[in-house]
């Protein structure tokens, strides 16, 4: 991961953004944080990252101000990870990747992996970022997520396989 001191080579905001979030593992970590995972093990299970990869990404995200660590256990000392305002503001990018992937990266017979319901009016927002019923722009905090059975099973299988390996 590139640090701020090494980013001075360009004023391009796309290149600078990619310095922070420009690899698969970092985006998957952020996806998990947006889905409500806060602990290292759950993020590891759902991303498939090795412990070293995940630790590196979380440290980079922390140093870039995208996440903060908060202790949840004293002995042994364990942390959970929470998105900062900067991290939460990345949600439109994850949302756009989701919408693009739902449109272009799956078979016709596959259902939408995650459906989002607008809490205020109770309607499905589809793949957009504006509720089609009430016309309100939505952010992740405005939405309730429900996983398709296939995606829920995939996530449960990862969790079971991980726990089986850890034994």
Structure description:
- Keywords: DNA-binding, Transcription, Transcription regulation.
- GO terms for molecular function: DNA binding.
- It holds the Pfam family HxlR.
- This is Transcriptional regulator.
- It is a single chain.
- By secondary structure, the protein is α+β, with helices and mostly antiparallel strands.
- It has 2 domains: 1-89, Arc Repressor Mutant, subunit A (Orthogonal Bundle); 91-167, no CATH class.
- Helix content is 46%, strand content 14%.
- It has 7 helices and 4 strands.
- The strands form 2 sheets. It has a two-stranded antiparallel ribbon. Strands 3-4 form a two-stranded antiparallel ribbon.
- A hairpin with a 4-residue loop joins strand 1 (67-73) and strand 2.
- Helix 2 crosses helix 3.
- The longest helix is centred in the last third of the chain and has 18 residues, at 149-166.
- It is globular and about 50 Å long.
- The two termini are 33 Å apart.
- Mean pLDDT is 92; it is low at 1-5.
Descriptive key words:
167 residues; alpha+beta; Arc Repressor Mutant, subunit A; two-stranded antiparallel ribbon; two-stranded antiparallel sheet; 4 strands; disordered N terminus
- Fraction in beta strands: 5-15%
Compute the number of structural domains.
Answer: 2
CATH level-1 class of the largest domain: Mainly Alpha
What value does the Rg take, in angstroms?
17 Å
Oligomer: single chain
List how many beta strands DSSP finds. Answer: 4
The total of helices stands at 7
Here the CATH topology of the largest domain equals Arc Repressor Mutant, subunit A
Portion of residues within helices: 40-55%
Write the CATH architecture name of the largest domain. Orthogonal Bundle
- The strands making up the biggest β-sheet line up spatially as 1-2
Mean pLDDT: 92
Class by alpha and beta content: alpha+beta
Main sheet record: 2 strands, antiparallel
